[in-house]
Amino acid sequence: MSTFFLAVALLLLAFFWQITLSGIQRKVTARIHRRVGSPWYQNFIDLFKAWSKSSISHGFIYDFGVLMALGGTIATLIFVPAGNLIVFKNLDNFFVIVYLLAIGSLGMAMSAVGSGNPWASIGVMRALTQMLGYELPYIMTVFGIIYANKTASIHAIAEAQQTMGIMGWNMFRMPLGVIVGFISLMGMLGKKPFDTPIAPAEIASGPLVEYGGKHLGMLMLQHEFATFVEVGLFVNLFMGGGTIITFLIKYFVVYMLATMIASVVARFKIDQLVTFYYKVPLALAFIQTAIIIFTGLGVSIWL
Amino acid sequence: MALNENEKINEIDVNELDCRDTLTFWEKFGNIFRSKSIWMLHYCTGCGAMELPPTMTSRFDMERIGMAPMATPRQADVLLITGYLSVKTLRRIIYTYEQMQNPKYVVGFGSCTLNGGVYYDSYAVISRLDYYLPVDLYIAGCMPRPEAVMSGFKKLMDMIKKGEALGWKRYQKYYDWYKKNQVRALGEVYVKDEFHE
Amino acid sequence: MNFMNNIIEDIKSRFNPENTEIVKKNQIAIDFKNEEVHSALAYLKSQGWKQLTILTCVDWIKENKFQLVYILMNWDNSITIQVRTKIDRDNPKFRTVINIYPGAEMYERDVHEFFGVEFEGNPNHEKELFLELWDDLPPMRKDFDPLAYSKKKFDVREYKVDFIPKEGEAE
């Protein structure tokens, strides 16, 4: 029973925290553009407005895919430890999260193709191509961490970093790895310059092209939850998790850094994106993994 | 004196009508959110596209009143019709409007949608938009400056909050009347395009 | 200028144009008879005027003539030549040039749509290009009245005068 309440608490935390942060992110972007920007609660209004509109259905697959995307993302979210709020103590394995995260993307792909719009097919194709790009360097880096810690449990990895103070974070013990991780995180979040699948000006917002009203509201929520999963993973793996307060502070810093980078750069084309991922981050990930295998974590770079 | 169908349609003048008594409680509740978050689809025909970038970007910053551009008709709430509206465009506009999700609003932008503007005598430009689509708000000018655009959007928000912007209900209720006007101006609304055959 | 005169002399030696003029720097206008247009165009294309910039039409309603204007461009010496010819306005017919300039197909459809000129030999010249479901005179002719058409087709907004100026105010 306590597990159930913990899960609900985690969901509520993710909902309010991440949607507030999305509003703040819009504000930050606007400030960088020298604008005033929307109020911080704008995204709540957008969400409730989208749910108050009528929506159209293009068939069973279309509706089911949206529910599958939302459900799969919520299921993934429950496994992510947020600071010391851990729902399933012994199940927060990295591989579980990676497998479950694919369900959300697949549901969205299924639904988008079910809508029958050519833009949606192009968008889904781009999204899967982009996944192919960022997954490989990211997984290699994380395998390095897992190899060094001899465990794939997320909270065990997070706790192992808290023993040595701030210098014990994987961020400082594997500086190349954190660069790879951050670039891959930007790709996962779909921030610029990696927002190729949802290019509004080129392919009419890609997979989202046919969604209106309630469907769109659900997918917005799904996107917020997926963001929480991805950023939470990054904070746990590279910045040592921490208590719930420190976790949220670190989360805020990482997310805002990604936003600031995103608000001043332009968009990659899909071929440039894959080429970039297979050149720079993959090479860095190889070097980092080799260092970890031969000398262990925390090379005495800092002496 | 019984009227036949055609005469009944001719008797209607939709701009005098009011659908406010059809609002349900949930719609009144939803209007609070709808007025604060407006996603717009700008169908920029002609010179209207000139005035929107200043309105969106840092000088006037449309986003601070909760407006954002959207890429597809399905996601949008407001259809901005900017500039002159040729007969060929009107067919596509009607398609676009009917693809949008309720509640939807139409904003006519500039003199051309209001009364034909400088193209009042053109063979290819319609003179009056609200005979073909239910327009909620007109912004007069040729072209209206961004200040006028912003004030028009604020007015639209107040209208939505009070429940006065009910063009979408009118369009459903008096569809025959709109359809008759569309057919008279266009011949038929169906789009035949040789490049998409 | 000398170079332009050479071109005109060359044309005059091969065909007999009705009139030649140098419109401005690097632009020449030549009037041909109807029969000579195709051979002249073919010759000019072989001389380097490879681009048909536009085919357009002018309505000379008092002479009761349509004037077809073929504007050619040479990318080597940047000289534009207008090849012009006048055809009858009551029965406007002309032979197509798509065997010389294939890109002329769209221009001919355009001219047929807006002026009603028939191009024999162009299989698609009657397809509609810009105007959909047009049911009147071709609209660019000068005897077509756009205002009457607009009033007939489209609804006009009626205005009531609700401002009455007082004494001494400007109207």
TrEMBL record, chain A:
<feature type="transmembrane region" description="Helical">
    <location>
        <begin position="60"/>
        <end position="82"/>
    </location>
</feature>
<feature type="transmembrane region" description="Helical">
    <location>
        <begin position="94"/>
        <end position="116"/>
    </location>
</feature>
<keyword id="KW-0812">Transmembrane</keyword>
<feature type="transmembrane region" description="Helical">
    <location>
        <begin position="136"/>
        <end position="158"/>
    </location>
</feature>
<protein>
    <submittedName>
        <fullName>NADH-quinone oxidoreductase subunit H</fullName>
    </submittedName>
</protein>
<feature type="transmembrane region" description="Helical">
    <location>
        <begin position="252"/>
        <end position="270"/>
    </location>
</feature>
<keyword id="KW-0472">Membrane</keyword>
<feature type="transmembrane region" description="Helical">
    <location>
        <begin position="282"/>
        <end position="302"/>
    </location>
</feature>
<dbReference type="InterPro" id="IPR052561">
    <property type="entry name" value="ComplexI_Subunit1"/>
</dbReference>
<feature type="transmembrane region" description="Helical">
    <location>
        <begin position="225"/>
        <end position="245"/>
    </location>
</feature>
<keyword id="KW-1133">Transmembrane helix</keyword>
<feature type="transmembrane region" description="Helical">
    <location>
        <begin position="170"/>
        <end position="190"/>
    </location>
</feature>
<dbReference type="Pfam" id="PF00146">
    <property type="entry name" value="NADHdh"/>
</dbReference>
<dbReference type="InterPro" id="IPR001694">
    <property type="entry name" value="NADH_UbQ_OxRdtase_su1/FPO"/>
</dbReference>
From TrEMBL, chain B:
<dbReference type="Pfam" id="PF01058">
    <property type="entry name" value="Oxidored_q6"/>
</dbReference>
<dbReference type="InterPro" id="IPR006137">
    <property type="entry name" value="NADH_UbQ_OxRdtase-like_20kDa"/>
</dbReference>
<keyword id="KW-0874">Quinone</keyword>
<protein>
    <submittedName>
        <fullName>NADH-quinone oxidoreductase subunit B</fullName>
    </submittedName>
</protein>
<feature type="domain" description="NADH:ubiquinone oxidoreductase-like 20kDa subunit">
    <location>
        <begin position="44"/>
        <end position="155"/>
    </location>
</feature>
Automatic annotation (TrEMBL), chain C:
<protein>
    <submittedName>
        <fullName>NADH-quinone oxidoreductase subunit C</fullName>
    </submittedName>
</protein>
<comment type="similarity">
    <text>Belongs to the complex I 30 kDa subunit family.</text>
</comment>
<feature type="domain" description="NADH:ubiquinone oxidoreductase 30kDa subunit">
    <location>
        <begin position="32"/>
        <end position="146"/>
    </location>
</feature>
<dbReference type="InterPro" id="IPR037232">
    <property type="entry name" value="NADH_quin_OxRdtase_su_C/D-like"/>
</dbReference>
<dbReference type="InterPro" id="IPR001268">
    <property type="entry name" value="NADH_UbQ_OxRdtase_30kDa_su"/>
</dbReference>
<dbReference type="Pfam" id="PF00329">
    <property type="entry name" value="Complex1_30kDa"/>
</dbReference>
